[in-house]
Amino acid sequence: EDDDDDDEEDEDEELLRRTGNFVGSSDSLPSGVLRMKKCLHANSARPSEDRLTTVQFHPSAQVVMTAGLDQSVSLFQVDGKTNPKIQSIHLERFPVHRAQFSVDGETVIATSLKNKMFYVYDMMEGRVTPVHTVRGLNEARVKEFSVCPEGGTLLLTGTNGYLHLLTLKTKEVVSSLKINGDVSGVAFSPDGSKVFANSEDGEVYVWDLRSSRCVNRFPDDGCVKGTSIAASRNGQYLACGSESGVVNIYSQEACLNSANPRPLRAVMNLLTSATALTFNPSSEILAIASRADDEAVRLVHLPSLSVFSNFPVSKRKIVYRASCLDFSPHSGFFSLANNKGHAPLFRLLHYKDF
């Protein structure tokens, strides 16, 4: 039995040596049982005093970031053993609602709950800059945002159905889009040219960011109130979460072209509001969660659209309430941010690269 453990250790060391320019595993991920191993919490070197709101893996380095209501953003090296802290910054009177790496991974953008100001943390320089004014932004607060795949821009979620495209370099709004009802989530097409936005009214809008035109809109099947949305990186799937806990999985192509697309599958495993959806980089797994209930996280296998039977299965709680989910750049690791101030970390054994 010990030999087995040693082999696994060797496999891990090998994994962490090669972050390689890995294109995709030739053997596709089997459905049913997801081979995984629980690791030390990603942030065990500095657990948070309060609820974590963000966990995100760095786009190119073996690093993970956590942030949350304890007014801090922390970076850890992911080695699966001790996950040492790289640095932690404290943001005075600024409980972090969301923090995200820029596309190039050189900066972190962090927003809070009640202010219009946000912070830009330049990791290379170790410099934290508050951004107090954004030209052309007529909103009382900046809370929800997404980093656009096309570098250098953020999409800010405003009130009354507004989305604002902000250029980071000049700190100004270059265009605004508007939907009916409040925006409940946004997701980008793989090339970043289109954005999918779902509304609290249960509709999905597709915008062309370059022309600022709405190119499609459709009702999310059976949805009364939309809560979250995610798109797979291979352009194949769009997932829409609702307050009832149902997650509809669509063909992304149908969502671009059809006035009334039917879901490929309605995933019914969550019994409370579906608040977080994330596809893994190889578009073989969709992670879904509700922050309204303990252990309410499921992993869906694609393309079979079936839920993995073995997560989270444990005699004791391991997840608690998860508000954010992420996979490392080549899916070797999966983590989530929970209400206990921890980021539980799992090694997905099918994937050989970080």
Give a brief outline of the structure:
Keywords: Nucleus, Phosphoprotein, Repeat, rRNA processing, WD repeat. This protein is mainly beta and 354 residues long.
Characteristic key phrases:
354 residues, 4-stranded antiparallel β-sheet, 2 helices, Utp18, rRNA processing, repeat, WD repeat
Rg (C-alpha, Å): 19 Å
What is the global morphology?
globular
Strand order in space, largest sheet: 1-28-27-26
Show unreliable segments. none
Average pLDDT: 94
Structural class: mainly beta
Multimerization state: single chain
Strand content: 35-45%
Largest sheet: 4 strands, antiparallel
The total strand number stands at 28
How many helices? The count is 2
Helix/strand order: HEEEEEEEEEEEEEEEEEEEEHEEEEEEEE
Helix content: under 10%
User: What is the straight-line distance between the termini?
Assistant: 26 Å
Structure description:
Helices cover about 5% and strands about 40% of the residues. It is mainly beta and about 350 residues long. Strands 1-28-27-26 form a 4-stranded antiparallel β-sheet, with no helix packed on it. The chain has a 4-stranded antiparallel β-sheet with strand order 2-3-4-5, with no helix packed on it. The longest helix has 16 residues.
Write the layout of secondary structure elements.
Elements: H1 2-17, E1 36-38, E2 52-57, E3 63-68, E4 72-77, E5 85-90, E6 98-101, E7 107-111, E8 118-122, E9 127-131, E10 145-147, E11 153-157, E12 162-167, E13 172-178, E14 183-188, E15 194-199, E16 203-208, E17 213-219, E18 226-231, E19 237-242, E20 247-251, H2 252-257, E21 265-267, E22 276-279, E23 285-289, E24 297-301, E25 306-307, E26 322-327, E27 333-338, E28 345-348
Antiparallel strand pairs: 1-28, 2-3, 3-4, 4-5, 6-7, 7-8, 8-9, 10-11, 11-12, 12-13, 14-15, 15-16, 16-17, 18-19, 19-20, 20-21, 22-23, 23-24, 24-25, 26-27, 27-28
